[in-house]
Amino acid sequence: MEPSPEQSPHHAYPDHWEADVVLRDGGTARIRPITTDDAERLVSFYEQVSDESKYYRFFAPYPRLSDRDVHRFTHHDYVDRVGLAVTIGGEFIGTVRYDRINDQGRPASAPADEAEVAFLVQDAHQGRGVASALLEHIAAVARERGIRRFAAEVLPANNKMIKVFRDAGYTQRRSFEDGSVHLTLDLEPTEESLAVQRGREQRAEARSVQRLIAPGSVAVIGTGRTPGGVGRTVLRNLLAAGFTGRTYAVNRAFDEGLATLDGVPAHRSLGEIDEQVDLAVIAVPAHRVPEAVADCGEHGVQGLVVLSAGYAERGSAGRELQRELVRRARSYGMRIIGPNAFGIINTAESVRLNASLAPESPARGRIGLFTQSGAIGIALLSGLHRRGAGLSSFISAGNRADVSGNDFLQYSFEDQDTDVALLYLESLGNPRKFTRLARRTAAVKPVVVVKGARHSGTNPPGHAVPVSRIPDATVSALMRQAGVIRVDTVTEMVDAGLLLAGQPLPAGPRVAILGNSESLGLLTYDTCLAEGLRPRPPRDLTTAASPQDFRDALAEALADGTCDAVIVTAIPWVGENGEAETGDGEVLAAALRGAAAGGPAKPVAVVHVEIGGLAEALAAASSTAAPRTRPTTLAAQPSGSPTAPITATAAAPAEPGTAEAEGAERPGRIPAYPAAERAVRALAEAVKYAQWRRQAATPGKVPEFLDETTDEPGAAALIDTLLGTAPDPRGRPLTHDEARELLGRYGIPVRPTLPAPDPGTAVAAAARLGYPVALKTTAPHLRHRADLGGVRLDLADEDALRRAYGELTELLGKPAELLPVVQSMAPRGVDTVVRASIDAAAGAILSFGLAGAPSELLGDTAHRLVPATDRDAAELIRSIKAAPVLFGWRGSAPVDTPALEELLLRLSRLVDDHPEVVSVALEPVVVAPQGLTVLGASVRLAPPPPRGDLGPRRLPNY
């Protein structure tokens, strides 16, 4: 909303303060500055506030606002006087205002840094977190305008408002004066205030997804009058799934006399329905969607699934239509899945929702699935169904203009029906938030991700989100740091998801292999080694092995304390006539299940080749019918042994009417794979994830010594001086001396270099530094390129230096082109490179590798998000492939890795404390057996990019 001409001309309308937020109950609202055009809205809002709330606001009966009040509350300068409003459907539901004051409590201007703040929330919307959201946003505005403290007077009976202040997490002081509670809040964010903010964000966003996938009623807008078409298909799928709520068919083209369609009430508009509809599935052409959204908003619909296409995937015009769609929906308090979505599914027995184009609702299970592609969603649903896996929930977000993978993580974290979260992502709208949410979710349940469009450098059509410039390898490393299981294909995602959903996590990498094929066992053994596991020699049961032999061998392997997981390999066995038989897969399944049920809780996976009936037996475990039973045909099979499909428990076939018989996926399923490498890869991911979980239970720390040996105020002052009062938005590189001074403030000494524009100056520099010295070129095309001859080392005296100078200039060019420098020699060691950079989307990233070919040619570089802990630093140097070079490879002396870890922590702290430091490269860092030496450093400063993760809660606007 733009200000009218009456608005104070010397302060422009701050449109960056506008924000969409999710409230406590999952609905959305808009926060924006109040302008002079809001007089009527303010009066209407105040008329709907109860007398009690008015009394709490003004400490006296105050039935109506005077014209002077209205003028005062709608005219702001956006610096010393600011008012914000929360709106739904364009109408106010809450307001907040601050006025800057001096030490005596009188109106003031800067440099006064305190303001009086007051709130008013409509009674019908109290309890939705409106005041808490307003406090976050008005505090951010105040900090931007140089205000450091809020003062508030609250009546003792106004417990709700006192609780808003008390629970915000800011440092505060309270006193009782003249019959009211006087509160003072320091507005500097604290760890507690950030934790409170993120906790509220998590609960609100999780609730907003919950409202979408667990509605009490659904209207399909655009249901066709004849069979076929998108809307009619969704209606059919809703009915086929047995949706437990109420369903309505809506189409403005219905005949007036049409009362029902496919057995559900038919209406021409939502206004004809005599109850509030929770969820609307919109399946009309794009040009009719705005009308449908407005109809939904005016009739209290809580959420939308927009299947209609024709938006951002069609180009810039469609992208603007998409943005307007989101703006309109949020203005009514609704969130959107889509547009161009495939739909949503919730298999919970209390919901049974299939509001999608999937013709068959998946069985109930413990896997939650989110995808940004309808085609991939179809493939995943089909693949999971073939493998007998059930789902708890499914969201296909299409263009993900609103509800995203981050929202799905918020929901999955709380959902008791989801044990594993699978996500197919083609874009990350907020990578920094994604890694934060993924880390928290992965601490309690696995998160498996496939990232599409990894190497294109652009977003897929329809995804209007910021493009991150960091390489895909870096993205993968950051996901690993957050505990995310990053796989390359949707097949690998299904493979990993099945194992993680059905089996316990392994305690380590030791794997027992058993089966009736020596060749398949050896192939599995080799694959385990390639994936970093520690397999035991395969146990060959021979092709004559019976199901009982498999059971006994599996039970023995599980009982062995030297193994952490078991892979069973099975091929058709040879019958008495010498011919291969497919055997009875169900009997083998029952044998393996019985062994797993009676042994210690360890993961078991099966690799099978054409075992007749085995795959069917596994898939039947999540069918909607009770599992089949069949007579035992092998004498070796004990009587009474269960014959249901493979699970990790020995539960008997389900009784009719139980949850299992009704289709709930049973815990402990043993996953089966058609190839050894697929089973081993899934197990290897589970091993790495389990190790991360164990480490995450005791997180690393930032060592206290950094606080004693860093000069944060001095570095801040130096940065301010270097950037100047009007810094170039593109930033500026620091000179060698400037970089040395800044890094020195954080205990990172850089070995000095002296310019050598001619041989005589070089000799003088060497005399000053002391022999032996190095002579190096610093020209950009030769920098750090010892292979091109631009470096001469161990020059012991003046003659050697002059000779090297002559060779250098004769070979490579004139001194003015080479820019040679002289530097004293460092102790011998391993050359490494340490970098830190800020990506606008992902945040600050710390990187490490060996200097030269390993990092530059082979890409052997490790990455971690800043701020790094002591554990991050230790893992960083150990996670590169060339790490053995640092630890005594081939008899060499191990280098001082503790000194290297300390350097990484110091650089991390520098970049975290000062976001103006947008890039640092320390190259080379020579790590010796005792200590290290930083020989080169380049630093770039720039105005810091905005940190959305530290600001108030807001939904992204793409």
Key phrases:
single chain, 958 residues, alpha/beta, 8-stranded mixed β-sheet, 28 helices, 33% helix, flat, disordered N terminus
Q: What is the helix tally?
A: 28
User: What is the average per-residue confidence, as pLDDT, rounded to a whole number?
Assistant: 87
Helix content: 25-40%
CA-based gyration radius: 33 Å
Low-confidence stretches: 1-10, 621-667
Distance between the termini: 18 Å
Structural class: alpha/beta
Strand content: 15-25%
Shape: flat
Strand order of the largest sheet: 1-2-3-4-5-6-8-7
Strands, total number: 39
Taking the sheet with the most strands, its summary is:
8 strands, mixed
Describe the structure.
With 958 residues, the protein is an alpha/beta fold. It has 28 helices and 39 strands. An eight-stranded mixed β-sheet has the order 1-2-3-4-5-6-8-7, sandwiched between helices. A seven-stranded mixed β-sheet has the order 11-12-10-9-13-14-15, sandwiched between helices. Helix 9 links the parallel strand 14 and strand 15. Helix 23 (759-769) crosses helix 24 (798-812) and helix 27 (870-878) crosses helix 28 (897-913). The longest helix is centred in the N-terminal third of the chain and has 23 residues, at 191-213. It is flat, with a radius of gyration of 33 Å. Residues 1-10 and 621-667 have low confidence and may be disordered.
